[in-house]
Amino acid sequence: MTIPTPLTGVVPPVCTPLTPDHEVDTASLVRLVDHLLTAGVHGLFVLGSSSEAAFLPDGHRKAVLDTVVGHVAGQVPVLAGAIDMATLRVLEHAKAAVAAGADAIVATAPFYTRTHPAEISRHFRLIAEATPLPLFAYDLPGSVHSKLGTDLVLELAADNVLVGLKDSSGDEGGLRSVILGARARDDISGFTVLTGGELTVDSALAMGADGVVPGLGNVDPEGYVRLYRLCAAGDRERARAEQERLCGLFGMVDVGDPARMGRGSSALGAFKTALHLRGVIDCPATAAPQIPLSPDEVELVGKYLAGAGLL
Amino acid sequence: MTIPTPLTGVVPPVCTPLTPDHEVDTASLVRLVDHLLTAGVHGLFVLGSSSEAAFLPDGHRKAVLDTVVGHVAGQVPVLAGAIDMATLRVLEHAKAAVAAGADAIVATAPFYTRTHPAEISRHFRLIAEATPLPLFAYDLPGSVHSKLGTDLVLELAADNVLVGLKDSSGDEGGLRSVILGARARDDISGFTVLTGGELTVDSALAMGADGVVPGLGNVDPEGYVRLYRLCAAGDRERARAEQERLCGLFGMVDVGDPARMGRGSSALGAFKTALHLRGVIDCPATAAPQIPLSPDEVELVGKYLAGAGLL
Amino acid sequence: MTIPTPLTGVVPPVCTPLTPDHEVDTASLVRLVDHLLTAGVHGLFVLGSSSEAAFLPDGHRKAVLDTVVGHVAGQVPVLAGAIDMATLRVLEHAKAAVAAGADAIVATAPFYTRTHPAEISRHFRLIAEATPLPLFAYDLPGSVHSKLGTDLVLELAADNVLVGLKDSSGDEGGLRSVILGARARDDISGFTVLTGGELTVDSALAMGADGVVPGLGNVDPEGYVRLYRLCAAGDRERARAEQERLCGLFGMVDVGDPARMGRGSSALGAFKTALHLRGVIDCPATAAPQIPLSPDEVELVGKYLAGAGLL
Amino acid sequence: MTIPTPLTGVVPPVCTPLTPDHEVDTASLVRLVDHLLTAGVHGLFVLGSSSEAAFLPDGHRKAVLDTVVGHVAGQVPVLAGAIDMATLRVLEHAKAAVAAGADAIVATAPFYTRTHPAEISRHFRLIAEATPLPLFAYDLPGSVHSKLGTDLVLELAADNVLVGLKDSSGDEGGLRSVILGARARDDISGFTVLTGGELTVDSALAMGADGVVPGLGNVDPEGYVRLYRLCAAGDRERARAEQERLCGLFGMVDVGDPARMGRGSSALGAFKTALHLRGVIDCPATAAPQIPLSPDEVELVGKYLAGAGLL
Q: In Å, how far is C255's CA from the nearest CA of chain D?
């Protein structure tokens, strides 16, 4: 399908359910996709950070793409992460996404290698040239250790290299600069700005962001869809109340003991545990080397769900 | 072949020559391997950072492994980098290295994902369990954004998870702590410590490091072999003079204009340009999105070579 | 005066005008204070980052405190930064602020020295114990290289160590967590949350922040007061338009050539140049070792002002 | 006294003994100075990081300067740290050092404020212009968050802005580049390079460093003097053995529980506890907000001392 310009709404980064022996659990994945579509989400982002793309071998990635694209069957656009260290490796993932029938590619700046704005620009230009799919830039300095500058994003938008930005930098001032910069320029139109922040959806939409890619949207997609609709309808007070409810639920990302695991293990473990407790996926396992939640931590996730009326 | 315990000597991280259209130039790679073996190096490290592993798709990586392992044919050990973001992806590269006949695996801590010492430990343990080849840890905080702690390295050495460390952290105090810690413990023996630093080989060997993995060793392998032998023979003054000559030659890594490219583009571009000017490889191209050296910068590399009597 | 709990409104971080020979220009400082008070600001923050506190010797700091506190004479609260590396040094500045008659102290976590959450907590507790003035925490990870955690801030608020937070971290999700956390806890009341972000005032206020500390508020205090009032009145659309106008004006912070100066030189140089061009201060000099704007860059600041109708 | 060019030997960064109520314990400080002079050190560095300069108010700093300069009375050169955020504040400390009769000033790049190479250069130039004392640059990226580039250091050396470098960056490759660069240039002579690394003194001296500024030298000055003399005499094997013994003793810096305190609290607490246990100073207190060692941790320091024959 042709992706809308701009793409608007709730586009959850789809978790990747795994079997106990760490294969992709495609049956659970299909149920998760249905769980999201039923809630009314406007698109799906597979193979991003919340999908554990960094942990998944290419075979797993292909299974995810084939399963999701096949099951969605054009009901909503499917954006595919092409997460890898540099251009040629990203292009292989982009090819796989094209082959699977995804609707757009999402790529970060190069990482592992030390990089430079000129190299980041060249990277996106080469990807856009080589793939027939529209390209989103994924700004994620916590993982990639470089920040996409506003001027660079706007230049690449004006040159039709990028159709959009997925901003998970947490820098709302920078997000707004891109939104206003794109609006101010005659040579940019239909550029999509999505925020990755779970806690600031109402304000990002009020600033003019087109949509949101919330990891917590796996757990409570109805909540984010409701929030989006309230914002779209201009009902700010009820939007704020819904957002604040979701902020409370988001507390689950910190259930994991920081002496025992990293914050990623805790957050992804909490999302998958919540999906397991809600009956959407069969097994809450996260990919190695992440540390599993303890029984006490699982119980705490349950309390967050119960508190939000989701159990 | 069985890798020596410890592995000693000069183990250059082999550059990956590319054709102008960015395929692996296997003929040039064979010439480069011969250039290194003729100089008397004691092992080869393929698919590390100086090999542009971060930039190379799996097919390129396989071509490198097959070409080098096949051509070396057991003359010296071949260590294979298995550079990827997390455990399952690293294991795929490890399998490919086993299939190609490499003699050891070299892996970093997880990256892109935020990590934790417990996760780093689990990562190396899972890799070691799953692969029949000996495992080296690659400490490269500039790329990986976490530093391997001395205690963690020693614990993994004592548990036979790691057979060695390739330390490219630039932290010589930490390097020495590992060397002295391994020596002091009864439950560690034959553990290999290699330094990745081009500028401190004489001092690292004097501290007790077993060998060196110098990117500049592609350009002047005779120099590093001579330096290693002088150190082994205890001829400190001539060792220092040779090291200082190599420090001068190393200046080539900064030929690239920092306004136009990152330091990686400059350093790898300089090494490959030097190999091209010396007639070892056919084409100095570096992988996208790296920025090529300008003609003036190429000329400057030539001056470094001429100054060192290498042209 | 007793500081309101919470403190609400626009509290500009007052620039410190300097003479050409780098003394405090108290006459210009008085004019700047009048310029701000006339615009209707609700408080003043002296000796923060925008005041160049890091650059000013103690004698300069005292001159600023005496001048501003004396001239304001209780019309609005004056918050005084006590910016220094660790507890005892901060306490000296706090004493000076008490002596000058300031209404509150603003302090960061320790910096230069590597720190730890337990040390940060102890730092704020010792400052609060030793000073009779209310204490605000200043979260500024770009300068201080540690981030104040939500839990730490709330614990210090509940223990009456902190009366408020000035959040210049740029992390709006974290800001919201503090706001909601403070609201949710019975043991916290009257806690003030101020944002340092110029570009997200409307959204921060919509989230429940009490006020704003905008560096750009030196240049256009009427704009920020208008924005605050529109937000307070619930007129979201006009608030957004005013905020977007101010976002455009904020572009002046990037007039300085990044090849020639750091971003601080550029931003503070632009603010002071704008104040000079608007006739508020006599000399746009910034403190050493900052690099002055070039004539072309000054002209560009003038264009921003003209575009905003401020010339 | 006129400082030698270059300054060579062991120049310990003198700890600052405190009374239980956190005043400078000048009697203990005098004993510590005697402890160091008796051991044969070649100079003293006061008000550096190991002196807790970041924690000490100006009055404390003055007490340290007056006490040490007065007691040393020209027997060895006294270098005085002028540690502060930016130029004008550093100049105040430089003036105090001149007034107290110190022999040289040691200053870092600006910190807290974001900086730029042009601003760092200007900073050192302005300090050198304004003070009659010779100026050393202090490279300490762990505290200052910028690294002094080799080219910048050499340019400032050639322009007679800097007489030396105290390198606590831990980057031995960079240290060597400065040493070789200074030696290679005709426009630089007598430039002093001191390393701050406790663990790599033998190798730094072998590279051509002029001296060493070891925090651990407070605890075991005889050891470092012996090490220096062995290196100077070219007795590499005994130098290495002495260095390795000191590496073992250095393990005391990690006695503090990282769950309870930062690494600075642990290291400075260990040094002061060791001085207390050895009877040199009256009280092991470190300045707020550092966390004191527990009785168990104190006992562990004692074991390190006993193991080294220092109790």
A: 16
Distance of CA D64 to the CA centre of its chain: 14
Q: Do D180 and B247 touch (CB under 8 A)?
A: yes
Chain D residues within an 8 Å CB radius of B202: 206
Q: What is the dihedral of CA A125, A131, A135, A141, to 10 degrees?
A: -60
Tell me how far apart the alpha carbons of residues C16 and C281 are, in angstroms, rounded to a whole number: 10
pTM exceeding the 0.80 threshold for the entire prediction = yes
ipTM of the complex: 0.97
CA angle A44, A50, A56 (to 5 degrees): 100
A126-161 residues labelled b (16+ CB within 10 A) or e (exposed): bbbeebebbbbbbbbbebbbbebbbebbbbbbbeeb
Q: In this complex, is the C-beta atom of D264 within 8 Å of any C-beta atom belonging to chain C? A: yes
Nearest to C44 by CA among C70, C22, C26: C70
Subunits close to B (at least 3 CB pairs below 8 A): A, D
Contact B55 A85 (CB under 8 A): yes
Q: Mark yes or no for CB contact A177/C199 under 8 Å.
A: yes
> What tens digit of pLDDT does each residue of B130-159 get?
999 999 999 999 999 999 999 999 999 999
Cα–Cα distance between B84 and B268 in angstroms, integer? 20
CA dist C156 and B212 (Å) reads 51
B142–A89: do the CB atoms touch at under 8 Å?
no
Please report, in angstroms and rounded to a whole number, the separation of the first and last CA atoms in chain A. Answer: 35
The model's pLDDT over C164-208, given as tens digits with 9 standing for 90+, comes to 999 999 999 999 999 999 999 999 999 999 999 999 999 999 999
* CB distance D249 to D219 below 8 Å: yes
Q: Residue type at B214?
A: P
Find the length of chain B: 311
Contact B54 A85 (CB under 8 A): yes
CA contacts within 13 A on the Cβ side of C87: 21
Hey, is the C-beta of B206 within 8 angstroms of any chain A C-beta? no
Phi-psi region of B106 (alpha: psi -120 to 50; beta: other; left: phi over 0): beta
How many CB pairs below 8 Å do chains C and D form together? 140
